[in-house]
Amino acid sequence: MDPMTLIRMLGDGLFDAFSMFWETLWALFLGFALSGAIQAFVSRARMQRALGDHRPATLAKATVWGMVSSSCSYAASALAKTLFRRGADFTTSLVFMIASTNLVIELGLVLWLLLGWQFALAELVGGAIMIALLGLVGPRVLGGRMADEARVHLDRFESASAGGGGHEHHHDHGDAAHDEVPLRRRLRSREGWADAAGYMISDLTMIRKELVIGFVVAGFITVLVPDAVWQSLFATGHGFWSSLENVIVGPFLAIISFVCSVGNVPLAATLWHGGASFGGVVAFVFADLIALPLLVIYRRYFGTRVTLRILVVFWATMSAAGLAVEYLFKLVRIPEPAPIHTMTGHGPSWDHTTWLNLAALVLFAVMYWLYRTARSTGKYAKDPMCGMQVEIANAPARRVRDGEAFYFCSDRCARQFDERTPRMTMSHDPSGTHRDPVCGMTVSPETAVGSVEHEGETYYFCSTGCRTAFGLKPEAFLAPQ
């Protein structure tokens, strides 16, 4: 291939990527704006009080609350871990995670635009089937001793995090104040909409890399990968057996070519254009929760044996849901969208999409202005690593540096913060207050839970967990900055 041909193909790939992005721009902004409003105005306090079993009604609640708690895959796994740690049933926590990633507004809108309304409907129907299957299989495969093992491993993981400077302090009273304010008043308040704008901007910031990667990779694949490659991966012409092979291969591709949340929809459009079956594409979209980086996170949280079972259960239910929705749609005569319509390839023009995009840009400008100028309710903080807006009362992880508290969407972001930021080394300041050397929280001798003498100096602690971690390995918390 001569250089000019390669340059032309790369240009065509970038143009196709931009065309897909332009086609979905208004849907992305609208979806994230609605998601931000829901997250800002819907309290999570009830979630932590009512998910202690896996009855159908409880799974339905977890599904609805997951749908209104839009998250990228990393944040969704952290939320599910937090719910499980606070007493939620293991299967119910996993249902919440699936719903908060795969049954959200922005995903449905982008599916509709890039793949057709049939795929947006399949997301909802297939998601319900997948959750129902998980409700049946999960308690038998992931319940009982497996759930106990997961909880024990999670406790060890949390203790190890505390020993590494990652002790978490949770203040669960934050949502109580939220619930005391009537919803109508919150909807009329500028502060409430500032929180909604914060969620919108933070969610876009959080997955910006995944969105760019998803569109660019999809554009390049469309141009550079011949249809014959996809046809060799996805069997055709063998009826049910071809459909079965497709729904198994779809999640495998998601595992090895992971793009978070909405970012995998352009890749799904490429698979559909390349000849994958309807059910195979649906299974691929659902399978972002079993990508390799997330499997590593599950292993840290719950251990190897539990993670392998999660992988098998998720892969099986995602494949089964994709297969079921394909044949259900055939049964009720819902037509499959033509693959040629999934790729745009024509760029911007003065049609309805352009006007919708301009309106979306105006909406974004208003929300961004609120985000930068309006005072928020003070219930939220921004994860300094990924940019996600986090509820202070329910933050999965917290750190203190030089008297300033930082809140994180997941332990993954907290670990990145630990690697880039030195720990506190001062045990006290001239005012007479002391800093817990493990977490950095300010304490006084009168209110400290305990103290430890080390090399002639007394250190005070906010909790028994911090005191125990320090006693086991003091030098880990007294390293020079």
Radius of gyration: 24 Å
Q: Please provide the count of β strands.
A: 8
Q: What structural class is derived from the secondary structure elements?
A: mainly alpha
Biggest sheet descriptor: 2 strands, antiparallel
- What is the CA-CA span between the terminal residues? 54 Å
In quaternary terms, these chains amount to single chain
Q: How many domains would you count in the coordinates? A: 2
Query: What gross morphology would you assign?
Result: globular
The low-confidence parts are 162-178, 341-345, 424-431
Distinct helical segment count: 21
Mean pLDDT: 78
H/E series, N to C? HHHHHHHHHHHHHHHHHHHEEEEHEEEEH
- Which range does the strand content fall in? 5-15%
Strand order of the largest sheet: 1-2
Organism: Gryllotalpicola protaetiae
Membrane topology: Multi-pass membrane protein
Subcellular location: Cell membrane
Main location: membrane
Description:
- The longest helix is centred in the first third of the chain and has 39 residues, at 3-41.
- The protein has helices spanning 3-41, 45-49, 56-67, 73-85, 90-102, 105-115, 117-141, 145-163, 174-180, 183-188, 190-206, 208-224, 227-233, 240-256, 265-274, 278-286, 292-302, 304-331, 352-373, 411-420, 464-472; strands at 380-382, 389-391, 397-401, 404-408, 434-435, 442-443, 450-454, 457-461.
- By secondary structure, the protein is mainly alpha-helical.
- Mean pLDDT is 78; it is low at 162-178, 341-345 and 424-431.
- Strand 7 and strand 8 (457-461) form a beta hairpin.
- The strands form four sheets. Strands 1-2 form a two-stranded antiparallel sheet. A two-stranded antiparallel sheet has the order 3-4.
- It has two domains: 3-373, no CATH class; 422-481, Roll (Ribosomal Protein L24e, Chain: T), CATH 2.30.170.
